[in-house]
Amino acid sequence: MQPRSLLFFIFATVGAIHAPAEDSVLSTQIAQAWDVTWSRFYLPRVQTFGDYLSSYDKGKEQAHLPTAEEVKRQYPNPCGYSTGMEDGAILGGAMLSVLCDRFAVTGEEALRAQAAQVFAGLKLCATVHGVRGFVARNVCPEDGKSVYINSSRDQVTHFVHGLWQYYRSPLPDEATKQQIREVLADVAERMIAYVTPENAFDFCRADGQRCPLGICRMWNVQAHEAARLPMIYAAAWDVTRDERYRAQWQRYAADAIAQSATPGENKPAYALLQMQCSLEVLHELEPDAALKSTIHERMTHVRDLAAKRFASVRSQIAKKSPEEMQVVGPDWRNVPQWKNQQGYLNPQWGPYREIWHITREAGESALVFLMIDPASVSAAQQKSLAELIRGFDYDHNSSCGVIYHLAAYWKARRNHLLAP
After folding, report:
1. How many helices (H) and strands (E) does the chain have?
2. Where are the domains of the chain?
3. 232-282 pLDDT, tens per residue?
């Protein structure tokens, strides 16, 4: 063998040995994140996910969750803010998206049953209370039926987006698809009935009263929220083909896209993600080429904002010690500070809120820039995402942000990035 050939052989062999080792670390980390999500955050009785852990001890991870009695009296507030029951519909919708992406990559048959479980939890959020079209934030696992009566447009956004992706995937059977049609039609019908000028475009609480916080308003909202209402109608039309929903979608779509031009530069990652989810549905379904192109421009802008956010959050995480990142959340009942939000008393988590938030933001922001033109994701961004996952201690993570780390990873894999 010539010296140059020998040198090439050595480098090629070393590279072949080194690359699988790196891929093995990434795969092991994702497997651990997956296990933690299902073993600690998943609530089997109601088939939903909780927001945070207050202990790493087996069986005590979510001992802080509200009791049925507390939920029935809407304690500590009608949103369930800070209790661990705040974001179940959001997390379930996000997890359905994860399952769709993972199945597209791996084709694992076991994912069908897991997706069916997550759908069952989301359906429970939309039906257990008997209020047609109302999407509860979560369902109390103690009695399997009690809910907080104040939802939000954020909950509905991920709920609808997740069900829409699930419907269009190979995962559900025909009976499940029919259930999805019914649930999304119910949500659309509530929007038609309640989101009117007389209600200030608010879809209202489960008791029919206006939300005092403004978080259920679906029109005359900020730029990052403007596409939510037509997205709901578009998704309902796509699964049912009911012209009633097409008319509502087209009534709002062009104006919503115009309003979406200038989301704030400093919006949190969850706001950018929900905007991107709404635009994704509208982009996929829009028949007008010019408007479709404008939606693409909006998504590209959101992608760029999210890329900046991802870099910023990565630097925040790098400044934290392992001990800080491993901290668990409090029992909300015992925190010293409570905030009065329009009469809703909200327990404040203190320093833990930042750890919970940056863990989540890292995954959310990465997911956003993977949702449009994946070929534009740079090698540096892929490397940064891989480094985030490789360096994260998922076994000692108490934030539901782990779901978004999974989401970013499997979205990347589906788009032939981070491939082993």
Report:
1. 14, 4
2. 31-328+340-414
3. 999 999 999 999 999 999 999 999 999 999 999 899 999 999 999 999 999
